[in-house]
Amino acid sequence: MENGNSLTNGHSNTNQLSELADKSLFISDSFVDGAWISTERQFDVFNPATDEKISSVASLDRDDFIKAIKSAHVAQKKYYKSTTAPARGALLRRWYELIMENKRDLATILCLENGKTFAEAEGEVVYAASFISWFADESARSYGDTIPSSSPNTFIYTVRQPVGVCGIITPWNFPAAMITRKVAPALAAGCSVVIKPPSETPHSCLAFVKLAVQAGIPANCIQVCTTKDREAATELATNPLISKISFTGSTNVGKMLAKLATGTLKKVSLELGGNAPFIVFDDANLDIAVEAAMICKFRCTGQTCVTANRLLVQKTILPKFTAALVAKVNALTVGSGFDTTVTQGPLVNKSAVAKIHEHVTDAIARGATLETGGKPLDRPGCFFAPTVLSGVTTSMLVASEETFGPLAPIFAFETEEEAVQLANDTEFGLAGYLFSRDASRVYRVAERLECGMIGVNTGKISASETPFGGVKQSGYGREGSMYGLEEYQVLKAVTVGGLDR
Ligand SMILES: NC(=O)c1ccc[n+]([C@@H]2O[C@H](COP(=O)([O-])OP(=O)(O)OC[C@H]3O[C@@H](n4cnc5c(N)ncnc54)[C@H](O)[C@@H]3O)[C@@H](O)[C@H]2O)c1
Ligand SMILES: O=CCCC(=O)O
């Protein structure tokens, strides 16, 4: 035991990989122009629970990206012309089924490279597959309009057409779901994609793509360019054959890519960082609020963009809420995600550990109280003790920066007005949460929070049917839901004149 959180030992890569039922799903090549390709230049991938090297992966250069984009451009035209929307839906349905059949292997690969617990990894595989299932159905529900014309003998209608070749760039925290949430609607719409997966976790993407090809998705319509060369990856934002770029990741990189994309006026979707407020009013059901805080804060070891970054708690219930949260945090078990007793995996790398440590040290230096945790764990891997701080104020780093780690900082507030003001005092606007049993207050506060997504009396807001996305500097565009398909489409208006009526 350390800091109240129990520890378990690491699990080696070789053991986990030898247990894959289908070993061919563990791939270290890129997939370009319908072929698996390797390169002399490679980058290494590490197991964050043990620091062991897992693999060396192909590191593509700009010319490889250009080749993939050209090939995806030719393929997209053929794919759209030769498939109906229901036929594209059927391909996605088959891909979904193959993912579910290979769920354990996919979760093993994901757990190994990302570190999240095996249960969470399996959960992510199912979550990732749910977007494919959703867009398999949505594919056929893409409607245009008929429009009464102001000119005689004229008829106007609209059609939704695929935008073209899409560049997809994703982060490591959800190595599977961030890819399927983009690729499934793109393929459903009749687009082709060139994916640049994160260099920390490329293997999940490669395994998913192998299954897509097995499902019958035309090979050149789904290309994967693994690389450590970020310059080369910017080709996705500048190449004129790319019509759309969809990015999930940090706000700085998103802004830089959006600027590059204006050069050729690409359609752009950005799912960026967050700084979610989690407001607990004194009329809330405390058990529900504490349980939600645990899910929302400590899922994926605090490395989700919708994680509760700031816990705002009404003064009257502060001692009770803090004690209940600390008790739950002390019951967490930290270690390798493959250990079934573990509830908290490692952080993704050493710099993630350094960032949370900086936030904790800064907050304590400025007067916060350490309730539990507070330091990196002295063992191999990238571990930080799950931490609760109370007495946190807006002068501290954690108030304005996304920690992206297992740190629950508690701020106190007195009035509803103050809570809303504190919650909105950030440049970000992805998710927000509020806990109250007063229906009018729920409506009022949900209306005033400057966020793209709100959880009321729940910490779970992500689902394939719910529009996912932010406002302010958390980006624009919506993923999943009935709105997700149109991000990959353009609306064409057809005016037919000279009709004989
Ligand atoms: N809003 C959302 O839906 C969402 C979801 C997950 C993560 N995120 C955010 O992502 C961040 C963490 O992920 P990260 O550290 O991987 O982010 P990141 O921006 O560093 O990287 C994201 C992706 O962009 C690539 N990349 C980085 N620099 C690039 C460049 N110059 N040119 C081209 N590609 C480049 C990376 O290799 C990776 O594939 C957090 O801020 C988190 O909030 C947001
Ligand atoms: O980290 C961001 C995505 C997580 C989610 O989809 O809930």
Automatic annotation (TrEMBL):
Which BP terms in the Gene Ontology apply to this protein? gamma-aminobutyric acid catabolic process
Q: Which InterPro entries match?
A: Ald_DH/histidinol_DH, Ald_DH_C, Ald_DH_CS_GLU, Ald_DH_N, Aldehyde_DH_dom, Aldehyde_DH_Superfamily
GO MF annotation terms: succinate-semialdehyde dehydrogenase (NAD+) activity
Query: In which pathway does this enzyme or protein participate?
Result: Amino-acid degradation; 4-aminobutanoate degradation
Report the top EC class in one word: oxidoreductase
Q: Does the keyword Nucleotide-binding apply?
A: no
Q: Where are the transmembrane segments?
A: none
Pfam families registered for this protein in UniProt: Aldedh
Which Gene Ontology cellular component terms are annotated? cytoplasm
EC number(s) of the enzyme?
1.2.1.16
Q: Which domain of life is it from?
A: Eukaryota
| Residues at the active site | 271
UniProt keywords, alphabetically? Oxidoreductase
Kindly state which reaction or reactions the protein catalyses.
succinate semialdehyde + NADP(+) + H2O = succinate + NADPH + 2 H(+); succinate semialdehyde + NAD(+) + H2O = succinate + NADH + 2 H(+)
Limits of the Aldehyde dehydrogenase domain: 36-494
Similarity remark? Belongs to the aldehyde dehydrogenase family.
Q: Which protein is depicted?
A: succinate-semialdehyde dehydrogenase [NAD(P)(+)]
Task: Specify the species.
Answer: Glarea lozoyensis (strain ATCC 20868 / MF5171)
Tell me the classification of the organism that encodes this protein: Eukaryota, Fungi, Dikarya, Ascomycota, Pezizomycotina
